[in-house]
Amino acid sequence: MSIAPWDHRLARLLVRPLASTPVHPNHLTAAGLILGLAAAVLFAQGDPGLANLAAALYMAAIFMDHTDGELARMTGKTSTFGHYFDHITAVTNYVALFIGIGFGLGGGALGAWAMPMGLLAGISVGAIFAGRFYIEERFGHDVVKQESFAGFEIEDTLYIIGPVTWLGGLTPFLIAACIGAPLFLAVVIRQIRGAARLMKRAS
């Protein structure tokens, strides 16, 4: 039996005091967007010290992505706008992250390749999450549901940006993302086609 992911449980604990305040889930979503974009801008500077700060901000942005949903469910303040705002914010932050990293690494070993690699990784990751959102909206949440293991989900691997940055591993991280993200995007596209075929047969 799977258990609730650790970051979801921590988010639920931390937002509980906000349930009786005017703070709206969309406020938390906006805060996460600001943190994510600020992190991307800092990564783009190409300064190791700023990159370390950027990594911490981005990890906070990832965590904030869970707080808005927990507060919405806790207070009943769910809305169609909030649902789409949350997904758009997540995709924007993912794309901005890799573009920022690519821009910042332009003066390093990757040289002129860094920026296009960042664009490729960012666009691929953004398309992955947009594709999964499309599947969820079109074919149901169960098609893209991620099982947790010992309180961790696949998307929790995004937290690795902190240790990777602090240990000086941004260059291999970008290379791995540039290769892995397009491959995983191909898997998502295959999922969309498979789900469409199943729905067509059922109709």
Describe the structure.
α2 packs parallel to α4, α4 runs antiparallel to α5 and α5 packs parallel to α7. With 203 residues, the chain is mainly alpha-helical. The protein is built from 7 helices and no strands. The protein has one domain: Four Helix Bundle (Hemerythrin (Met), subunit A), CATH 1.20.120.1760.
Inertia-based shape: flat
- What's the domain count? 1
Radius of gyration, taken over Cα atoms and rounded to an integer in Å: 18 Å
Q: CATH superfamily, please? A: CDP-alcohol phosphotransferase transmembrane (TM) domain
Unreliable sequence segments? none
Give the total of beta strands. Answer: 0
Mean pLDDT: 87
Separate helix tally:
7
Q: Give the helix proportion (percent range).
A: over 70%
Ends distance: 33 Å
CATH uppermost class: Mainly Alpha
* CATH architecture assignment: Up-down Bundle
- Beta-strand share of residues: under 5%
Category by helix and strand content = mainly alpha
Instruction: Specify the biggest β-sheet.
Output: none
In the CATH hierarchy, the third-tier topology is known as Four Helix Bundle (Hemerythrin (Met), subunit A)
SSE pattern, N- to C-terminal: HHHHHHH
Short description:
By secondary structure, the protein is an all-alpha fold. It has helices at 6-15, 25-44, 48-75, 80-104, 114-139, 161-166, 170-202. It is built from seven helices and no strands.
What's the structural blueprint in terms of helices and strands?
Elements: H1 6-15, H2 25-44, H3 48-75, H4 80-104, H5 114-139, H6 161-166, H7 170-202
